[in-house]
């Protein structure tokens, strides 16, 4: 499974992108479950965010959803944080 996160917005407006490929990882099942829950709560179109807030595009194996601060679910927040931290 390939998980990609693109973050835009924020005070400085700096875009950040990262991805994680779960193939061969010992924790792949955990990533898959988290990604499925995050996708289930996402929107098919970019939501209206708040001034200086972040907007996110989450893509898992070609399926893309959108989310924005401050209305991220716990699963979306966790997935986004993990991908931006561990991804390249």
UniProtKB/TrEMBL annotation:
It comes from the Bacteria. InterPro entries: Emfourin. It holds the Pfam family Emfourin. This is Metalloprotease.
